Amino acid sequence: MSSNLSFSNSTAKRYALALYELSRENSELKNIEEEVKNLRNLLVSSVDFRKMIMNPIIKKNEQLKTLEKISNYLNFSKTLKKFLGLLTFNRKLFFLNKIIDSFLKIVSSNKDELSAQLMSSKKLTDTEINSIQKDLSEHLGKILELKYTYVPNLIGGFKLQLGSTMIDTSIKSKLNRLEKLMIEA
Questions:
Q1: Is the distance from CB of 127 to CB of 95 less than 8 angstroms?
Q2: Which of 45, 61, 106, 171 is buried most deeply by CB count within 10 Å?
Q3: What is d(CA 24, CA 1) in angstroms, rounded to the nearest whole number?
Q4: CA 150, CA 54: separation in Å to the nearest integer?
Q5: In sequence order, what are the beta bridge partners of 160?
Q6: What residue ranges define each of the domains in the chain, with the CATH number in brackets?
Q7: What is the Cα–Cα distance from 163 to 107, expressed in whole angstroms?
Q8: Distance (Å, whole) CA 58 – CA 117
Q9: Treating both helix axes as pointing N-terminal to C-terminal, what angle do 29-45 and 47-54 enclose, rounded to 10 degrees?
Q10: CB 176 within 8 Å of CB 161
Q11: Residue 125: is it exposed, middle or buried by C-beta count within 10 angstroms (0-12/13-18/19+)?
């Protein structure tokens, strides 16, 4: 199982790197980055699209026709259209979500960006989120892409995942640590 996961991750990274290199060579990186984000949004919002991509029974030519319609509707570049065609032809379309994530990570790291996940027990306004993002960006000296999630069961405080570093000030986490200490005592 572990080797399959490793295989799928390495395959996704290879395809993502190929798309990145091709986009950069064709001076389309910024445009394709936006198109890939639109494609990711489509994957998130459309159950039918996800089913079409993940279903191995659907024939290549049916997948190609569907992708062509979607690509034309969303005004995808020739480069991205051909890339999606290649994935379909090679029967690797089911890796699309991982390829998108890998591609966006490659783009982000080459732009000297960091991504972070913020979870809070209080629902934050857009102004508060933007302020936190701005302060963290200035402090770290890098562009920061902040993904915010409201998690009411944290009880209080927040969690910030920045790369491999986790900052956890939630009351729930503190209570769990106290409970563990009491059990061990």
A1: no
A2: 106
A3: 34
A4: 29
A5: 118, 167
A6: 2-109 (1.10.520.20), 113-184 (3.40.30)
A7: 16
A8: 36
A9: 100
A10: no
A11: exposed
CA distance 118 to 98: 22
The values of phi and psi at residue 151, to 5°, are -130, 90
Q: Is the Cβ–Cβ distance between 2 and 85 less than 8 Å?
A: no
What letter does residue 125 receive in the DSSP assignment? P
User: Rounded to two decimals, what is the model's pTM?
Assistant: 0.63
Query: To the nearest 10°, the Cα dihedral for 50, 51, 57, 59?
Result: -60
| 21 token code pair | 């290199």
Distance CA(158)–CA(154), nearest Å, equals 7
Walk across the sheet containing 113-120 and list its strands: 143-150, 113-120, 158-162, 165-168
Q: Which residues of the chain have pLDDT under 70?
A: 1-7, 112-113, 163-164, 185
Please give the Cα distance from 110 to 17 (Å, whole number). 12
Whose tokens are 């809070």? That residue is 120
Cα separation of the two ends of the chain: 39
